[in-house]
Hints:
The structure is a single chain. This protein has helices at 24-35, 63-74, 116-122, 141-151, 193-208; strands at 2-4, 9-12, 15-17, 41-44, 56-59, 79-82, 89-91, 110-112, 130-137, 156-161, 173-180, 183-192. It is α/β, with parallel strands linked by helices and 209 residues long. The chain has an eight-stranded mixed beta sheet, sandwiched between helices. It has a two-stranded antiparallel sheet with strand order 2-3. The two termini are 16 Å apart. The relative contact order is 0.17. Cytidine-5'-triphosphate binds next to helix 3 and strand 9. Cytidine-5'-triphosphate is lined by residues 63, 82, 84-86, 88, 113, 115-117, 133-136, 148, 152.
Amino acid sequence: MVTAGGTREPIDPVRFLGNRSSGKMGNALAHVALEAGADVTLITAAEPPGTTPGLDVVRVETAQEMGDAVRRSVRGARILIMAAAVADYRPASVSPVKLKKRRGTWSLELEPTEDILASLRKATDRRELFVVGFAAETSDLLENAQAKLRQKGLDLIVLNDVSRPDIAMGADENEVTIISSDGVVDVIPRTTKDAVAAGILGVIRPRVS
Ligand code: CTP
């Protein structure tokens, strides 16, 4: 299972809170895994990459929908790679009608979304699942990624420095550091997202067989 893209949290029928994730890294992971012979479910909040024979695509919009889709598909899955940029907050209420412009400032009340990875940690069927998270960071890169690995109970975390324009969200290339609880496992220097995906799957493969 691979998740991809940035979730969108509706404000009203025409507006949403979102982020810059394009879904390209998750799409690349899904494709490379499929080509390697895996049965792949891609749960995506981004535009899926056309029709790909054999790829099971689940379209979602919000963090809640992505969490529900992950929980539905997780039974029987061996590997979950959470490449999606999931919103941490959503508007506390969604207006059924388009909100009209008013004078002055406007405050939007936000409430937390659930942490999908952290919620899986508690699930009983988590034991058989190899879980890989992504850490999109702009500061204290290794420290932040290692803290996420621990807090979310991950097997691996893929660290991505999104402050660099050449490998920021939406870029065609990426450069990542793969970390386990024992420390840095691999560094994949800047290359295409397909090549990064192949590198990540190369690190996962011996750990699940
Ligand atoms: N993630 C998740 N559910 C959320 C938020 C994030 O499962 N509500 C997952 C992401 O898919 C990613 C990992 O957690 O694999 C880390 O996401 P990131 O946005 O880097 O971290 P956050 O936990 O959101 O922390 P922060 O935004 O404070 O850096």
